[in-house]
Amino acid sequence: FEIIFTDNCSTDKSFEIIEGFASSDQRIKAFKLSRNFGYQRSIYYGYTQANGLAAIQIDADLQDPLELILPFLKRWEDGYKFVYGVRRSRQEGFFISLIRRVFYRLLNKISDVEIPIDAGEFRLIDRKIIDVLILIQDHQPYLRGLIASIGYKQCGIPYDRIKRQAGISKFSVFSLFSLAFDAITTYSTAPLRMMSIFGFFLSMFSIITFIIYIFSSFYYRGTWPTGFTTLALL
């Protein structure tokens, strides 16, 4: 096995510590990105550097239980190419938890592919999926949807996500909404359909209004202000 660390251009001594591990253990690889490319790109790059028959992604804050790795491997040996953790509960504020639950269900409802509900980035993917990801080369990936869209046999394992024990997350509320926007616009045609319908009715309203102004200008020829029809139509 190998352990791959991707450092998304951290500003503390994280990478120095990781390099220390890598220098004393050949199974450990350390990669520091040239700038902060975002959470999803960092994970994606890690997948592109993986050489194994399967890869397991886990965040360095260790809120996801390492003990779940063995059940992941067992499901993989049973033939599942994509095994993911389903967050049965998570220790965070009520409001943000509610937003997450609503978003995951809304996304799954409007998405063109079935995206796992309440699943994060803690997952195992088979070599076949990794090879497809490398070929796709998405510069703004939403990995949960991208991996699900590839297909293959998949399953989820429920678990309880613990509270972060150290440090402060750099993943802001803005980053969360940005990720949600990428997910909706990439894996759902609903926004495009909504805008198309809106554009159609706006066009119909404009045409009807156009006709009304034309007839009104002739009907109220004596009292209709000069040039008003032209301005209104423009």
Describe the structure.
This protein is an alpha/beta fold. Helices cover 50% and strands 17% of the residues. It has a four-stranded mixed beta sheet, with helices on both faces. The chain has a two-stranded parallel sheet with strand order 1-2. The longest helix has 30 residues, at 190-219. It is elongated. The mean pLDDT is 81.
State the main characteristics:
four-stranded mixed sheet; alpha/beta; two-stranded parallel sheet; 9 helices; 17% strand; elongated; 234 residues
The neighbouring-strand order within the major sheet is: 3-5-4-6
Q: Spans with pLDDT under 50 lasting ≥5 residues?
A: none
The number of distinct helices, counting runs of at least 4 residues, comes to 9
Mean pLDDT: 81
* Total beta strands: 6
Helix share, percent: 40-55%
Instruction: Write down the secondary-structure element order.
Output: EHEHEHEHEHHEHHH
Calculate Rg over CA atoms: 26 Å
C-alpha termini separation: 68 Å
Biggest sheet overview = 4 strands, mixed
- The assigned structural class equals alpha/beta
Strand content: 15-25%
Q: How would you describe the shape?
A: elongated
